[in-house]
Amino acid sequence: MPLGASLKSRACLKLSSQILRHTTREKLASRNFTSSAVRQKQRLLIVGSGWGGYGVLRKIDKKRWDVTIVSPNNYFNFTPLLASCAVGTLEFRCAIEPVRRYTPQVVAYQAWCDKIGKFSTENCSMRACLRLLLHSGKTSGPLADATTGTPFTLRWDKIVLAAGAYSQTFGVPGVKEHAHFLKDVKDARAIRVRILECFEQAMQPTLSDIDRRNLLNFCIVGGGPTGVEFASELHDLLHAEIAHHYPTLAKLAKITIYDVAPSILGSFDKTLVECAGKMFVKEQGEVPFGILVWSTGLAPNPLISSISEFKKDAKTNSVLTDEHLNLIRKDGTVDPDVWGIGDCAQIEDAILPATAQVANQKAQYLVKKLNKLAKDQDSPKPFKFENQGSLAYIGDWKAIYDNSGKEDKIISRESGRVAWLLWRSAYFTMTLSWR
């Protein structure tokens, strides 16, 4: 063999040896040597990305839990700011936080959950069912993919039901087809577009003043905090940007609130309700409108309605939990692997309002409980709600604040500009990021 070829061969052998040793070191470094078996993380499934579900997603120990979240939205709605987004005070991105902010530590599916519990062979192919049934653990399914509509299933060891609730229409004809709701950033976007459409249509020279007044009658059904805050934000819009760009039409615009209760904001102190009531127009009878925003309470989520093995509240049809937030079976026993929080669940014998404040506190409690559970630590303390008070914006940089249930507070009730500062500062401190 020529000398050059021999040197070249030795060089190649030396290089190959170096590569082999380097690869071996990488493999050895990547292996985990231990004297005991590695403990597999339990599967935690979170259904919903609202105040309850997203609250658990944020703080759950992702190193100790194999977390999966399923929600029709791939984001969290900061609902107190949706009214501001609907009139342009805030941009839409200010009121949402992405679910995938926590991937790849968490598996996220944008899908609807139709059923929780035992799997039915009627809802999937036999092959898929057999594959699932061969594994131990519970299943949730079928879940319909939000894009394709193809059902699929997920296995879980522990599950948090935070599916939320729908808007209550009371079966009134035409509401679903013609009214706007305000529960999602998509709703806020549609409302903003419709408001501008009303003014552009009212500008047409073929309309009479009566037609214009009818078109610029903005109706809100529901005198709770959501309806009142939207009406207040709309009031500010009419007296600012609209008055500047549509000076003649702004004088014809009117905001009307409808509610079955004798007054708006019934959960607030009477003196604060009187203060807020001075800002709005009351009207009765059949009236035409340009836009109708419907905010009259909550209806059960279809997923929760489909659950039959657990106890439910007779009035709201939400599932009932014990003081540790575990769902209660119909026989009175508690399921230690299933929790319910948010608008879809209520604590038995301790009914709380369906608010973001309650859902957020339940999520914080459950996160601590689950993180301790992952460490094999007991968490015997029951959930206890700490009322931080109620806030509502009423327009003209004024708000009302009610915490009269706790007289030991520095401020138990307030209205006007001071309450507005409390309102804004409270929401700014609750925001989840600089976004």
From TrEMBL:
Domain of life per record: Eukaryota
Residue ranges constituting the FAD/NAD(P)-binding domain according to the UniProt record: 43-283
Keywords: FAD, Flavoprotein, NAD, Oxidoreductase
Chain ranges of the External alternative NADH-ubiquinone oxidoreductase-like C-terminal domain: 388-435
Pfam families referenced in this protein's UniProt entry, alphabetically: NDH2_C (PF22366), Pyr_redox_2 (PF07992)
Gene Ontology terms: cellular component: mitochondrion
MF-aspect GO terms: NADH dehydrogenase activity
Family membership: Belongs to the NADH dehydrogenase family.
Stated name of the protein: FAD/NAD(P)-binding domain-containing protein
Taxonomic path: Eukaryota, Fungi, Dikarya, Basidiomycota, Agaricomycotina
